[in-house]
Specification:
Distance between the termini: 11 Å
Number of helices: 7
Structural class: alpha+beta
Largest sheet: 4 strands, mixed
Helix content: 40-55%
Oligomer: single chain
Number of strands: 6
């Protein structure tokens, strides 16, 4: 399960709440930057992490049938407005809110940057705790929220990505 991880104590100190939508996420990132903070550490060395963001947004924008067609590599399933918007969300986040140098970071390097307080959030899978158990500072209050939803009437907050190429409901 993919989530955005955050430091609950940091959010509490600043009065921030986890965003539900991409517009709320970008607004939160602006608030973080206004405080001189880096919004997000990211694992840029492996495209697996970026693909998760794009697929999540695409599923929410295009719907389950279009998502399934794309996973089956149907013609035209990558050349459509929902895919362009999904890629634009990732591009904006990467250009405006990723930690400098993130394109060269491995997943564990980005995770350490987050736990060492050099970024406010980290997008990662549910394996984060098991990989970083020995590196989480004493008293760190780890929180998580789902990947943001596009501002779309089609978006389904109950949908969760269960495995590569599949989405479902919990």
């Amino acid at each position: 399960v993919w989530s955005v991880y955050y430091d609950k104590a940091l959010f509490r100190r600043h009065g921030w709440t986890p965003p539900r939508t991409w517009s709320e996420m970008f607004a939160l990132c602006e608030q973080m930057k206004a405080q001189g903070l880096t919004p997000m550490a990211f694992q840029g060395r492996y495209n697996f992490y970026a693909i998760a963001l794009v697929r999540s947004a695409y599923y929410q924008l295009a719907g389950p049938a279009a998502y399934d067609a794309q996973q089956a590599l149907k013609p035209g399933s990558y050349d459509n407005p929902a895919m362009i918007e999904s890629l634009d969300l990732l591009r904006r986040l990467a250009r405006e809110d990723f930690q400098k140098g993130s394109s060269g970071m491995s997943h564990t390097e980005a995770q350490l940057e987050f736990f060492q307080g050099r970024a406010c959030m980290l997008m990662c899978g549910s394996w984060l705790f098991s990989e970083m158990r020995a590196n989480i500072p004493e008293g760190f209050e780890l929180g998580a929220f789902p990947l943001p939803l596009p501002d779309s009437a089609r978006a389904d907050p109950s949908a969760r990505r269960l495995r590569a190429g599949a989405a479902g409901r919990r």
